[in-house]
Recover the amino acids of this structure.
């Protein structure tokens, strides 16, 4: 069975060496001293390592089951969820008035990585609840906040997001679930929703569904959509639970992975729903949940790669097979450990350099969210809005790829479920699909975000890169970082220019390169954070930090990323410049 | 549930337009007229579509079970296997004296693709048998051939390969299974083998295990290894079955995929075994099986991608979601089909251009095997020996990637087992691991094959590329093929030069680039066959072939591969040239 040890040291490096959080001007960051964040991360690690990770394979093997309308989670999930609840983990970054601790979103993300690595399926019950809280916080009425938030923050009640229907996923304009206004101001919700993660379960008293439905008079397509709160049990005026609402689980889907999370078909049969925010403005409210959820899904991508890598590394150090061609390393043993072989190293260094880069990128993104939300910083808001599809799409594509590579390190054992490496790949696979499939992320990036606000956010990104290069070009130790970063950034700019020149005449010339652009952008972002981390590591070494090995490893890992991963930008650019012609050449009947 | 329609037309194109088989000087090829091969392929298609494909998901869901020492295959497997047996499919390319039809290996491969696409797990029972037949044909005594081959060709008896043990896979020198010589010339085999595909089942009277074991006096490591026939039931002098031998199934592994194939732990408890070939020369004999098996596994890689693509295409034509940004294509429907969206096209064209290229590459490889075996052609033998790790490693890495992409086309439905797309990815995943994990293929390619015979095979490959470019550079229609092919070939040569210059001083500088070299080589091979197919398509169009759509689609698909896939060679070359330094920089304790 795989094991898990939380990367608290590396998270501390990101928070303090890289982001220098306690020196930041973002409200609430001053208290994030190293001792304080270490205490939080250590506590999260204890829970994750001791209670959540040991249930990961149990969840995969048992899955959830539906019996007489009741959803049962795998053995042990209930007790572990109770521990998450008791620790108050769900309220970490929620305002105090609703029972939270009001810490920055950044801290929620750092803890989130640890929980997701330990047990992604279990963590999703919390993650969906957190997303629903955010939507109610942003768009709910004061009464709704008072009624639902405290119980949801404590996770006595959990939350869900209901968008997809059998005939429509991405294209929500097609949705058919209807909302009929009632005299008391409530609505009757009728329709079927599918792929509802954490749709129902036996770990909370109530489930608060956030449901997209069409109320009369809103017009065609997405314009007619509104957002509703539909509780599993209606809530009485005094806050106690009342009658069972007209919502039920049709079935639990059999999936490739995340078996521990109940992915439900939800049937709404005239269920009572309460409008959230404005009528017919449901899409905007839903996007509040989605944007947060997308960053959370990007985090899932690299968090699964992180735990998979950790196990692959342990196996490569332990498993004796073959000899180092440059000279035996384990003369007393029958063979050398796998780690001596260059191609095994390649796989491990790919994983390590991706995971550490992705971690830094995601935490930087989380700090931008804090800056945007806590300071109303428009530039930070534009930048994170631009990078959200990159975090979601690039980190989940690569995260899955890295899980597959970690599995590969195990050879035949990687294919056997008992070793647990297949589960990481199978679980990570969903992250490329849900919350907007990665093709939709690429479309969002190229079709919407790139030109948003007159292109200011993307120019701001280039300014950060240029500024960093300019400030540090005299530092010879960073040359191996700055040269490839400059090249990657130039490839990204060239791609952007290509879209501007060709996309106007033929939008398909831009869309044909959207996925490659997302990957190109992702590499440029990881190149940037690696250069920044290299600088931070040099600074720590200059300052005589005691753990030289850690900082030197950081530099070496970064050099690997720049040398071996960043050259992908050339390939992506070449693909982008080939445009839509060969891609769209075939008529449908020629396929 | 997915469907399957065999690509007989495209296989015919490869056999006749591209390889021009009936005009070949290879013995046995003259009879491969278009009508004859079409009849064979149509017959195989009928069986695959009607009997094998419908059982693919059944096999995945039920798996195999071990009860009281007996292995049971999924419902329907036995009857379908009987149909394969009755059709004489296993003997297609086996000499007539042992009950076969003596057709070229090429035809076995073409039929093989169809069977593997339809039901990979079921096909493996036949595939392993075929491999065991090849080993006995090449190394067995006349008596052994007479005793075992007819029954194995008819598949009344099936075969297995037993290499791996719990503590050793790639490093067979460590194996512990021992063979003790007996007075009657037989051996007593004792030990445990794991990951034995088709290790036991209820579809044949007997199972003939080919087992690697160490007999006394052979020295250390792989030198001491010999190959033995160990039948499940001993065979009497008259050919009837005798006593049960001392071999049993310890357990069936729970795997990520290919559930319909019983992957067994095999326990040998003093089982009677018969030496195949020379004592202590077992590795050589095993490689006869392995080389054929490796090409078969490469075929599995693209065959799974082929069926996954076929279903993804059908879904993309059927599923209505969103509108074509360049203008509505389905004004009467609620939305346009997925196929109109460039990023969906990208995924489908990636798959289509890979699958068709891989098919041509594999069939070219199969024809080289026929040339080598039937004509003793040393150059063909050298070339296929060089390309075997590329066929195995590149086609399975990419094949899996394409299955994942096909799954992605389905959005959320791709993750739900009921739709069957997860199974293609999970089944294809094993092909990257077994018969030598892909890292081992890369090592074989760079560490052994590249320098084999003074580098003659690789020079022969470059001559083929150069010759083709020279002969066709006046044809303007091929310009879009020849220019990228030339560039890819140059990248491959540059990589080879890098290895020569640096690998002598530091072998790790070559090994660090081995996987990238395998991929670079794979792209160059697919670039070559695409250029050749483009020429063949032009010729057919010039000759006024009636089905112009087919040939024009072939040209368009090829142009896509050249424009969008071949640029990967630049990235692989850059990685190769970064050498081993950053890859090997970390000390084990720094990870």
């Amino acid at each position: 069975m795989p094991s898990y040890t939380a990367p608290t040291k590396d998270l501390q490096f990101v928070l303090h060496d890289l982001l220098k959080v306690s020196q930041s001007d973002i409200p609430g960051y001053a208290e994030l001293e190293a001792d304080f964040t270490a205490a939080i991360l250590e506590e999260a690690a204890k829970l994750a390592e001791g209670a959540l990770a040991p249930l990961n394979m149990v969840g995969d093997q048992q899955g959830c089951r539906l019996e007489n309308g009741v959803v049962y989670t795998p053995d042990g999930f209930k007790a572990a969820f109770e521990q998450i609840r008791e620790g108050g983990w769900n309220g970490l970054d929620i305002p105090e008035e609703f029972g939270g601790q009001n810490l920055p979103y950044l801290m929620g993300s750092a803890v989130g990585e640890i929980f997701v690595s330990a047990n992604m399926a279990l963590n999703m019950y919390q993650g969906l609840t957190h997303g629903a809280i955010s939507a109610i916080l942003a768009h709910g009425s004061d009464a709704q906040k008072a009624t639902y938030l405290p119980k949801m923050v404590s996770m006595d009640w959990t939350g869900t997001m209901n968008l997809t229907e059998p005939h429509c996923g991405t294209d929500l304009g097609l949705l058919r679930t209807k909302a009929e206004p009632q005299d008391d101001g409530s609505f009757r919700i009728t329709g079927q929703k599918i792929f509802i993660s954490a749709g129902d379960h036996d770990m909370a008293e109530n489930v608060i569904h956030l449901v997209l439905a069409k109320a009369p008079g809103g017009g065609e397509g997405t314009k007619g959509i509104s957002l509703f709160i539909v509780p599993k049990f209606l809530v009485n005026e005094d806050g106690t639970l009342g009658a069972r609402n007209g919502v039920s689980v049709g079935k639990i889907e059999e999936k490739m992975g995340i078996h521990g999370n109940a992915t439900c078909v939800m049937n709404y049969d005239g269920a009572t729903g309460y409008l959230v925010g404005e009528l017919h403005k449901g899409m905007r409210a839903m996007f509040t949940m989605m944007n947060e959820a997308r960053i959370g899904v990007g985090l899932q991508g690299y968090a699964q790669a992180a735990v998979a890598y950790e196990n692959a590394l342990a196996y490569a150090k332990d498993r004796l097979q073959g000899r180092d061609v440059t000279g035996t390393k384990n003369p007393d043993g029958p063979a050398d450990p796998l780690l001596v072989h260059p191609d095994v190293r390649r796989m491990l260094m790919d994983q390590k350099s991706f995971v550490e880069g992705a971690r830094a990128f995601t935490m930087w993104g989380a700090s931008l969210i804090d800056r945007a939300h806590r300071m109303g910083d428009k530039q930070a808001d534009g930048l994170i809005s631009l990078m959200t599809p990159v975090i979601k799409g690039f980190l989940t594509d690569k995260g899955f790829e890295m899980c597959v590579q970690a599995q590969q390190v195990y050879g035949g054992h990687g294919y056997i479920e008992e070793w647990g490496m297949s589960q990481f790949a199978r679980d990570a696979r969903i992250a490329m699909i849900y919350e907007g499939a990665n093709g939709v992320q690429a479309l969002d990036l190229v079709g919407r975000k790139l030109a948003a606000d007159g292109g200011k956010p993307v120019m701001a990104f280039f300014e950060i890169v240029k500024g960093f290069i300019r400030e540090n070009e005299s530092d010879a130790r960073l040359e191996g970082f700055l040269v490839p970063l400059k090249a990657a950034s130039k490839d990204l700019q060239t791609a952007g220019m290509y879209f501007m020149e060709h996309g106007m005449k033929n939008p398909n010339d831009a869309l044909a390169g959207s996925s490659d652009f997302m990957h190109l952008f992702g590499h440029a972002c990881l190149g940037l954070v690696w250069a920044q981390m290299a600088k931070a590591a040099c600074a720590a070494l200059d300052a005589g930090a005691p753990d030289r090995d850690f900082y030197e490893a950081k530099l070496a890992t970064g050099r690997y990323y720049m040398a071996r991963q960043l050259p992908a930008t050339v390939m992506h650019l070449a693909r982008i410049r080939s445009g839509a012609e060969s891609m769209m050449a075939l008529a449908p009947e020629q396929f």
In short: The mean pLDDT of chain B is 97. The domain at 8-139 of chain B is CATH 1.10.540.10 (Butyryl-Coa Dehydrogenase, subunit A; domain 1). The radius of gyration of chain B is 24 Å.
